[in-house]
Amino acid sequence: MALDLRLQVKLSQQLVMTPQLQQAIKLLQLSRMELVDVVTEELAENPLLEEGVETKEEHEDGGANLEGDALPVQDAAPEQEVKADAEGMNDIDWQTYLEGYSLNSSDSRNSYEDHEDRPSYESLLTRQESLKDHLMWQLNLSSFTVDERLAAAEIIGNLDDIGYLRASLEEMAENSESDLAVFESALKRVQKFDPAGVAGHNLQECLLLQLERLELSDSLAATILRDFIGELEGRKYPLIAKALKVSLDDVLNAAKMIADLDPRPGRAYNEEDVHYISPDIFVHKVGDEYVVTQNDDGLPNLRINSFYRNALTDSKSVDKKAGEYIQEKMRSAVWLIKSIHQRQRTIYKVTKSIVKFQREFFDHGIEYLKPLVLRDVADDIEMHESTVSRVTTNKYVQTPQGLFELKYFFNSGINTADGDAIASESVKSRIKEIIAEENPKKPFSDQKIVGLLAGQNIDIARRTVTKYREMLGLGSSTERKRLF
């Protein structure tokens, strides 16, 4: 069979992801905080973008030019240097202007008439003390030898956020080329620092250090921690009582004492900053109807800078290279503004559709949440399913029932005895209510919960109850059991 080369013309269609389309898709799936960061970065990079509301005159004058791909740019005359009006500058009362522009109150301005008397900005900054800062402060106030001080600093530097020492002393001594005995001596002294239980290698040692601080090293609780830590975790209290030849009440009292200890001694010094959620959209009830409104607070209002708009209109004053640069930035700015507007409109349409499907939820609460999938909303608003998925990711809505992520309203269905379907989130809520009302000494098993849900006409398998319980962060009946 002979092989030969030939040319063949073939006509085909394919989807090309232009940079503008990629940017629009990216903006669509960003959260509110991420969108603000992107807009702020674009404001810093693109000189044609500025904050403010576009006036009607600017829109009418430049609207046609914004849509065009290019404007005629001619070779202009040599550029003229722009000079400031020195006489006009002298006419300004700068002292009054700066006082009015100051961020301080009038009383504070009067108290700092001279700039030298004003405290520096750095002196007003504060930060929370970390666990390592707190321990190093105690180390500096203690009497250590030079070698022990270096070893103690090494130990403190290897503590994790909750105060545990994860590295071995042998490894630290080898890395610092020091004697192991020095690290052992330094560790014993660091373990006496505040908070109690710090620098323990594991949970058992951490709790024993706290009992030692309470002068309970010889107590029943300390004995249980040293010799029966596995049985304690498994709540095998009768076995512990039999092995130690003590009463069950004594073991329960000791277990209660251990439960009151702090398993994470460094937690108080490593609190994370709280990040508050700002809703992207609001749903208000006005009479018998629900009104959807967008939350534009915090989002910069973008517009095209009028100076560059006029410069493009008057093409004679712009040389060729500058005109091409302005044209490129103009297209980028216009597409960003359009993409943000399209994003806001899509979120609005998706939320309106969700309100239509989940009307009973907004009226009565989570128990009336209906099964809903992305395709239902996509068909309703005539958009692709992937677009709805991007819009509902990391977007939040404030409703009369509370603050929810838009993804929350999309649930699979669980069949009921009547042949209807109920949303999985509603089933999770009922499981949570059943566990909250149970007797802690005799918690319900998953099979028992299945029977209780069957009494509410919910047909569900035991493994599904187990899955939902684990998703809610609730332990098994053995883990939830409390004898004291």
Characteristics:
Arc Repressor Mutant, subunit A, two-stranded antiparallel ribbon, single chain, 4-stranded mixed beta sheet, 484 residues, alpha+beta
Q: What features would you describe in this structure?
A:
With 484 residues, the chain is an alpha+beta fold. Among the domains are: 131-269, no CATH class; 414-480, Arc Repressor Mutant, subunit A. The chain has 24 helices and eight strands. The protein has helices at 19-29, 32-45, 56-67, 86-90, 94-101, 106-111, 131-140, 146-157, 169-175, 180-190, 203-213, 220-227, 229-233, 237-244, 248-259, 306-313, 320-357, 359-364, 374-381, 385-391, 424-436, 446-454, 462-471, 477-480; strands at residues 49-51, 281-286, 289-294, 302-304, 396-399, 402-405, 413-415, 421-423. The strands form three sheets. Strands 3-2-5-6 form a four-stranded mixed beta sheet, with helices on one face. Helix 7 packs antiparallel against helix 8 (146-157) and helix 11 runs antiparallel to helix 12 (220-227). It starts with 18 loop residues before the first helix and ends with a helix. 20% of the residues are buried.
